[in-house]
Description:
With 472 residues, this protein is of the alpha/beta class.
Amino acid sequence: MSIDPAASSLDRRAFLRNAGAGFGAVALDAMLADEGAASMANPLQPRQAHFTAKAKNVIFLFMSGGPSHVDLFDPKPDLLRLAGQPIPESFGTFKTRRAVAKNALMPPIRPFARRGKCGLEVSELLPHIGGLADELCLLRGCYGDSVTHPESVYMMNTGTILMGKPSLGSWAAYGLGTENQNMPAFVVMPDPGGWVKGGAPAWGNGFLPATYQGTLLRGGASPVLNLGTPEHISALQQQNTVGLINRLNRQNLPAGAEDSELAARIAAYELAFRMQAHAPEVVDLSKESAATRKMYGLDEAVTADFGRRCLMARRLVERGVRFVQLYCGDTNGWDGHSDVAGNHTKLCAQSDLPVAGLLRDLKARGLLESTLVIWGGEFGRMPMSEGSNGRDHNPYGFCMWMAGGGVKGGQVIGATDAVGLRAAEEKTHVHDIHATILHLLGLDHTRLTYRHNGRDDRLTDVYGDVIVKALA
């Protein structure tokens, strides 16, 4: 009997058909068609979390470039006492990529003050955020795996120093979908001064279906490029065009390929069409009250840009967008290799009031309980000076904070050593931070997996523990 060369490549469904399975194949096709239709009709439909959680949405305030923990949130009396001296030998040998271990220890650029009922010490550079100390859960023992910007940006966003893995926002969208089918599940607002070092892979979907990648949102009348309908095209014509394109695309969509690039493109066309009607309203801030504009600093030149994006973030989560990430700092951002005082003074002035305004606004609207707000960069900075008045990168010990969304505020978790060089107590690796963020969203980081290259891959790889102390 001759053998069809193509038979060896038949998949399971084709085998059932060709083997004459009859009604079994018909039933299988019907079930798969129903599943495929449901998936294609609503690929970002809200999904059941692993367990009940308070946080429904996330706003990640990413301080691009690496803010200095020892100058903002981690006061070290020994930096004042030992200022101008080399780091003591008791801290052991230490080398950075610029070999600044012999450089003198440098004191904090501004004094710290105790704020709130909890007495949290915060730099005078951040008076507005400091005024909300009782809302903050400050992680002082954070550490990562790389001393360079792109790798650390990928680490903080995707859980690995390697390019090409799914971002935290993509995992959240994959795990929970979105509550608003007229907007993306994951929105990113880069700093208009320049993209973060590492670029778009920081908010990419990696090996997850393309539907879950971050969607860039800009300010102004055109939040997404090429979103507006040409003047001579009616809404009905646009709808018919999108419908025709997607019907033709579906004819080339194999059964079981609901997670393919083609399926993602079909979903993207449909989402883009819906966004044409809804996205402009989301970014239209003209109806916000004068008090709200003042709260975010929209009428002040220094705070206006970041304030607009913070306000837009509130409007997005208010309308059901699952994950919003906005970047503060251009391509260099908080990267204070020289004149860290001037660098941080400028960026704190731009961001302090808008961030505090965001927290206050969320709380006033009853949204803070269900919205997790995260503040941090890719790493911190060294306690030693670089040159005469700068600080080099420090992934070995730095600070981040969280607020709202099931977090217990008014507390400090962890500590760096006496000069802020390394995480020393209750240390929290980036994997632990990611595990905690997913937990606050009701997702078990060990169960949120995607089959890739023969293994069930996940954001935290095989690591990560929830920071139980951070939970309310």
